[in-house]
Amino acid sequence: MEARHLRYAVALAEHEHFGRAAGELGIAQPPLSRQIADLEREVGTRLFDRTRQGVFPTAAGEAFLARARRALDEIAAATVDAGRAGRGETGRLRLGFVASALLDPLPGVLSRFGRERPDVRLELHEMATSRSGPALVAGELDVAFTLGPPRGAGAEHLVSVPVGRDHVIAVVGTAHPYAGQQSVSAAQLRRQPLIVSAGADEPAVVAGLRTLLGTDSSALGGATVARDVHTIIGLAATGVGVGLGPSRMRAVPRPGVRFCDVTPCTPLPDLVLSFAARDHSPVLRAFLDTIRKNCPDVGAALDDRLRPRP
């Protein structure tokens, strides 16, 4: 039994006439008659009474037609669902990110993706680069925003594209002596209590701060360790010390703080978008399309990385 047999039976029940049903189905009447007869033989009972007044379902036919209509509805729904999944309009996207990605570009990207793909289930996981890289390799994440490209076993199978460059800046409360300065020097920072992000999880960030302050500086060893950039800014506002973090901290509007450049300019690891090269899922493709729309400069680099190589 095929779906066409169900359509033939439903059309015949609606038109109560072989000729009219055949016309709607776009086939000749004799083939329709044979198909209905074949269907009745397969079912093992008569589904239609052929009378002078027309063709009418039997009791068995009514029972069969009730399920046939539901089956056809399910087939139509399955076709629609398959099409939506194939276009990346449904499904699941598991995304890992470092906290600073929530300053830029994640807010715009997630907002747009949510509007364009409201039926995709987003699973968001804040995690350090040291964790998200292995999670990508293991297939536990679909995409990740990390500080620097993921490293370690299996990282060679990932596609990684920089989505943001950064350097160290300082944040202080408005009552702090540095609040009126455009910039502060490394020498000035060494004399202040510092607030930094959780170094154990982001060793590349710690390396950058050591480059700035000096490996033998005690300032970093005695620093207050904050969970993320929002905590750094909050603690700086209370006057606890001078917060050090990425320049994208400026995107966080908060009364009671001032941002200062730091000299010498000390680069931090790039914010990097990564995903498995073998992952060709429609939902991931849709997410990458959103990246292209929101970050055109990233889109060119992404297309270059995905272009087949000779």
Order of helices and strands: HHHEEHEHEHEEEHEHHEHEEEHH
* Domain tally: 3
**Class by alpha and beta content:** alpha/beta
Let me know the average pLDDT: 89
Largest sheet: 10 strands, mixed
Q: Which runs of at least 5 residues are low in confidence (pLDDT < 50)? A: none
**Percentage of residues in strands:** 15-25%
Characterize the overall form. rod-shaped
CATH class of the largest domain: Alpha Beta
From the alpha carbons, calculate the radius of gyration and give it in angstroms: 32 Å
- Helix count equals 12
Instruction: Please provide the count of β strands.
Output: 12
Q: In the CATH classification, which architecture of the largest domain applies?
A: 3-Layer(aba) Sandwich
Binned, the helix content reads 40-55%
CATH fold call of the largest domain: D-Maltodextrin-Binding Protein, domain 2
Instruction: Give the termini distance in whole angstroms.
Output: 48 Å
CATH homologous superfamily name of the largest domain? Periplasmic binding protein-like II
